[in-house]
Amino acid sequence: MVDGDLPAVAEIARANDEPDGGDPRYVSHLRNNGRFLVAEVDGKPAGYCGIRQADGLTMLCDLFVDPARHGGGAGGRLLEVALDGPGERSTFASRDPRAMSLYVRHGMIPRWPLLYLSGPPPVRSHVLLAERVPVEDAGVAELDLNGRDRAADYAYWATRPGAAGLVVRDGGTVVAAGAAEPGRVIHLVTADDHDPAATLTAALGTFDADRVRLCLPGPHPALPSLLNARWRIEDLDQHMASRADLLSPASVLSPSLA
Ligand SMILES: CC(C)(COP(=O)(O)OP(=O)(O)OC[C@H]1O[C@@H](n2cnc3c(N)ncnc32)[C@H](O)[C@@H]1OP(=O)(O)O)[C@@H](O)C(=O)NCCC(=O)NCCS
């Protein structure tokens, strides 16, 4: 991809109702920390694809084709280039059957749904203490929790309007860390020895919005209580991966960056 492709990428994203591809900060985050590919048909951009690679795992973050060219082979060609090496791979498939068809044929198996939920935040937890912190501090807290250095992702999340870091403590110990923006939990990971439903309840208590949005794996232990509290499933993707244990279903996930 070259800088001159940015307007065409934004237009393809807009035509697919996809907000991230129209955000130059998101595109430059992926260009700086992964790969961003553009497919041309007849000399004009027809589709794009974003990937990240870490520890032998390739995460397919985005794959979008100009609707006028859906089914014309551009998506398949982008995947052949993006996933040409060995190693594990994972992604979230939309409900477009072309996406799942291509991903299965590139070695990924459907694992669980990722649910786009919205609902009223619960009253504050009295067991765990959740607080808003600078976004970068939450990135350091996640590194301490699980050893994953997501500093670049936290730096990108920090550019989003109204962004904040989230940390949840049990006594003095940090047991969950993540990022939020107004009305949305972007990301939240929980220490292995703590209950992800309890940390999410605590994190949701820091919101004063009427409704909060988040993306939750189907197997996440908080799902039954959220649905009992009248949360709504607004959409769903399908998590697909070459191996079952590549992504924890106990986290709030960002569909593009996980
Ligand atoms: C999904 C998408 C990126 C695929 O790109 P594309 O250029 O349209 O796809 P291609 O033409 O390369 O390949 C589609 C494949 O799906 C197959 N396919 C189509 N409908 C299918 C169905 N109902 N069941 C199974 N396979 C199907 C086609 O046969 C084709 O495979 P083939 O080339 O071996 O014949 C594109 O359609 C798109 O942008 N969709 C909307 C946005 C979206 O959902 N993006 C995915 C985000 S995860």
Structure description:
With 258 residues, this protein is of the alpha+beta class. The chain is built from 8 helices and 11 strands. The chain has helices at 6-15, 24-33, 74-82, 97-105, 135-146, 151-158, 196-204, 223-228; strands at 35-41, 44-54, 57-65, 88-93, 109-119, 129-133, 164-170, 173-181, 184-190, 212-217, 232-241. The strands form 2 sheets. It has a 7-stranded mixed beta sheet, with helices on both faces. Strands 6-7-8-9 form a 4-stranded antiparallel beta sheet, sandwiched between helices. Helix 5 packs antiparallel against helix 6 (151-158). The longest helix has 12 residues, at 135-146. The radius of gyration is 18 Å and the shape is globular. The structure holds coenzyme A (COA). Coenzyme A is lined by residues 16, 63-65, 70-76, 93-94, 96-99, 101-102.
In short:
One of its GO terms (molecular function) is acyltransferase activity, transferring groups other than amino-acyl groups. The chain has helices at residues 6-15, 24-33, 74-82, 97-105, 135-146, 151-158, 196-204, 223-228, and strands at residues 35-41, 44-54, 57-65, 88-93, 109-119, 129-133, 164-170, 173-181, 184-190, 212-217, 232-241. It is α+β, with helices and mostly antiparallel strands.
